[in-house]
Structure formats: structure tokens, C-alpha cells
From TrEMBL, chain A:
Pfam family, one: PqiA
Keyword Cytoplasm: no
A GO cellular component entry from the record: plasma membrane
Keyword Nucleotide-binding: no
Organism: Rhodanobacter glycinis
Protein name: Paraquat-inducible protein A
Localisation per UniProt entry: Cell inner membrane
Transmembrane segments: 51-70, 98-123, 144-168, 174-194
TrEMBL record, chain B:
Keyword Transmembrane: yes
Protein name according to UniProt: Paraquat-inducible protein A
TM region positions: 62-83, 113-135, 156-176, 188-206
Keyword ATP-binding set for record: no
Alphabetized UniProt keyword annotations: Membrane, Transmembrane, Transmembrane helix
Amino acid sequence: MSALPRAHELGLIGCHVCGLVCRDTPMDDAACPRCGSALHRRKTASYARTWALLIAGFLLYIPANVLPIMRTASLGDVDDNTIISGVMELWNKGSPDLAVIVFTASILVPMTKFFVLTTLLVSARRGSNWARPQRAKLYRLVEFIGYWSMLDVFVVALLTALVQFGIFSLVAPLPGVIFFGLTVVLTMLASMSFDPRLIWDGRTDDD
Amino acid sequence: MAGMSVPSPAIEQAPAPVPAPLLICEHCDTVYRRRPLACGETARCARCDAVLERHQRLGTNAMLALILTAMLVFVEANVWPIVTLGLNGEKVATTLWGMILAMWHEDAKVVSVLAAATLFFFPLAKMIGMGWLLLFARKGQRAPGFRSLMVGLHYLHPWTMSEVFVLGVLVSIVKAHLYFEISPDPGIFAYAALAVLITIFAGVDLRQLWETLPEHATTEPTE
């Protein structure tokens, strides 16, 4: 046995919800004696669920970027903004720092999530030994940054409520923002469905 | 699950808690013997470097005080307008609910529901839930509904987004600043305070209540 024993080597199982350490059991529908949640060694159908949610999120991310997210109209002059054109507007009109923040939240973070989760899914499935501690860190990064992508959705919502000056100036949400909001939720669900323990479940343990 | 076979003995036994003070890393399943942490200490997993456990600096009373403060600020954040825009002498102000309703009427109902959930209902539920648990924890008791509340709060944890909203307001102000006169209203300061408070009690690990409050207990208050 290695110096750092893992739960299944000791015949133990940890509740994913309350953290209680239990003796492992062959029962399929075992419940945690403390909190009543289902006990399982790994999150249920982690690969299938994560893939499904990730692919769904990615598919919605396409219209989220292609379709405009916000319409600004003033005195008959109508302007439809996509995510990227909103970033460019911020950049050009004198707040490059905020442009960087919005770019990070709306484009960099979702892309990072797609890329990292795909890498994790593929490498964990292959039982790869490659860079395990780093992959574990990447997973925690994705979990941490996930919900900040909601930024642009809130910006559109707030501007819609505020810019209501009749024919002088109006802001309205466009379908892109709905797709984007759903992308954020789906990618959050995807990263929650992925079980980071799978990273360490390879054919050979490296320590 | 690939590569996992469990020997099946003749008698199926229900899972039983292990009496030894053990701790399993949630990120890689490594088993540790638990030891008490000194003030300010954080236990990290030697295999994957995830945080195993933090020393809880705040006692039950301090946490309860924090929650009550957050509740007051939350009321202010929702009652007061967040920002006012001005154009040609005309002024428009909005509150959080003004924003949620505007999205509903503009046929972005999905966004409206997302905003209502992550900025109003979930943070509210979290504060009420934690407040309720801590109110009884002060007396060393498990609150009615303890078990389901603890499980519910566990799932609710990643879905409160007040801090993202604060940044969103900032970006909106800068964007609108190009075309309108703009003045931040008290609501945004309340939101900023709320974001800080929520960040503090995001670090509070309620799981300790499972241990400090034994089942069917009428013990002395635990600290």
C-alpha cells in the first residue's frame, strides 16, 4: 500500500455531501447514515454527464457569440451588439481595462472551461499519469472561475432596465444573451458533474 | 466505473460510519488521519493539494452576527435603487427587481429567471438557512430540518452570484457613462458590502456542524 492510501484501498467510502467516512458496502443504493444522500465511490455517470453538458454548452455558445446580445437604439439609429463588439466598444471608447475584464469573463473563461474539461475528460478516461497534480489544479480553477461568466448577462439586464428614454435612447436584450446565460449554466453543471477523483484513478499510481 | 470491482460478500451490509477520526480528500479520495488545526492553519492534501480543512476562526455567535448583518444589507440592496441614469434632464433609476422585471417584459424570461434565482432567491435562501441552523447551533442543538437544510445548502453553494453582479454594475456604469449622466445610488454600496460579506461566509465550512452537534442531543453549547 502506498504512503497515501486512497479510500477504496482501505475499504472506505466518503460521503460526497457531508464528508462522513464510512465502511464501503457492496450495496448499490446505499445512503449516507449521517445526511441521507446517496453514497457512491465516484459521481454517477461522470463521463457521460460531463460530456453531454459540455457539448450542449458548446453548441449554445455558438449562437451566443454569433447572434447579437443587446440592441441599442437612439433616435432611429439602431445598433446590435454581439459579445465581441461590446468588448471592442469598451476598448475603443476609453476603458481598455474593463474591456479586458469583460473579454476574460465572456470569452476567455468559457473557452478555458471547454478546453480544460475536454482535456480532463480525455486524459482521465485514458488513465493517463501525465501531470496529475497540475490537472487537479486546473479542475479547481475551472470550478472557481465558472460563474464569473455571468457578468455580461447582468450587464445587458441592467442596461435594459436603465436605458429607457423612449425615442431618445433604448436598450433591449436580444436572443444571444439567452444562449449565453444557458451556456454559463450548462458549463457550470458540466464542471460539477466531473469527478476530479477520476484524474487519480489511472492504471498505475505514481506514488 | 472502469477498474472498480468490489468483492460481494454473502451478506449485504449497510454502510456504517468509521469510528476513527479520518478525513477523505474530496478531490482525489486520499485518506488522512484527522488532527486538530491550530488557529489560521489549513490542511492540504499531499497528493492533489486541495484544501482538506481550514481552522474555523469564527465561532457560532460570530457567524450568526455575520449572517444577520448580511440580511440587513441584503434588504437595503434590494430596496434602494442601484444606479440612476440621466438624459436631457430625464432620470431613470432601477433596483434589482426592476431589472428582473424589465428582462421578463422584454421576452428574455430565461435571463430574468436566472437573475432572480442567483441574485435574489438563492442568496436569500442561503442566509435564512444558515441563520436558522446557527440560531440553534448556539444552544448546541440541531435545528428542525437540520439534515435536509445541510444537504440543501451544500447544493446551493455554487449558485449565488451577488459578487458577479457588483462587477456587472461597474461595467454597466462605464458603458452608460459614454452617453448618459450617471450617478451610483446607495443600492450599489449595499451590494458591494453584501459581496464582501458573502465572500466571508463562503469560507465558513458548515460541515463542522455535523460533528459539533450530535444527533438527538441536548448537550451544552459547543464552541
